[in-house]
Design brief:
4-stranded antiparallel beta sheet; alpha+beta; 31% strand
Length: 194
């Protein structure tokens, strides 16, 4: 429980700092991210329990990565992250999960995710900001990738990439769990509002 409270305090601090850097009021961030002002006020006070969709909308609007909202200060030049040390940001009813392992630094960060999709379980994602590119590399099993209504099968040993600014869904297919590594390539953040 203490880890959850500490993580929420980190998110609260990072959302507020990113909002101020971008020169946005609570009202403007609320409007742009389509998140209620009350939820934002609570979040900046380290109250509530934001879901993955809310964090993605806030990150997209602020022009930063989801993990930039969740991570504390860097701990040196090399980061090694264990999957067991990272709580899932999404879990499905059948045991599927998505873990945001880390985000690279720099003007165009890359998020590194580990996913497990159980057969028949899916995660629909809303369109991201323009310039976001996603890549999925299936390490075992099989998935169905739906991008803008078109389905593609991606099997173990295959990699697919697509522009993330359109509706997309990840679905486990086949008879066993699908394991994949996803990278989300983010465009440079917006210039502060003057």
């Amino acid at each position: 429980m203490a880890e959850t409270a500490a993580a929420l305090r980190t998110v609260a601090h990072n959302v507020r700092a990113a909002r101020i850097r971008a020169g946005l009021t609570l009202e403007e961030l609320s409007r742009r991210a389509q998140v209620s002002k009350g939820a934002l006020v609570g979040l900046e006070k380290a109250q509530g329990n934001p879901n993955l969709a809310t964090l993605v909308r806030l990150a997209d609007t602020l022009g930063i990565s989801v993990s930039a909202l969740m991570q504390g200060s860097p701990e040196g030049r090399v980061r090694v992250v264990s999957a067991e040390a990272v709580a899932p940001l999404w879990t499905g009813e059948r045991g599927s999960e998505a873990r945001l392992m880390l985000t690279t630094s720099g003007p165009t960060p890359v998020e590194i995710w580990r996913w497990r999709l159980e057969p028949g379980e899916e995660y629909p994602s809303h369109p991201h900001q323009g310039g976001v590119v996603e890549t999925v590399s299936v390490t075992s099993g099989r998935m169905t990738l739906v991008v803008d209504g078109t389905e593609r099968t991606v099997e173990a040993g295959q990699t697919a990439t697509f522009d993330g600014d359109t509706p997309h869904t990840y679905r486990g297919s086949g008879t066993e769990a699908c394991h994949l590594i996803m990278t989300v390539h983010l465009p440079p953040g917006p210039a502060p509002v003057s």
